[in-house]
Amino acid sequence: MYAKLCDLEILSSYLSDISVGDMLSVQASITNPLDWHYFYDKISIIKKESKTDFTVVTREGDRIVGSGQVSEIERWSNFGQFGFKIKIKIKKQKSLTDRRLRSIHSNVQQTIVTKQIVNREREISHNGYSLKT
Question: 20 to 30 Å CA-CA from 104: which of 15, 19, 35, 43?
Answer without folding.
Answer: 19
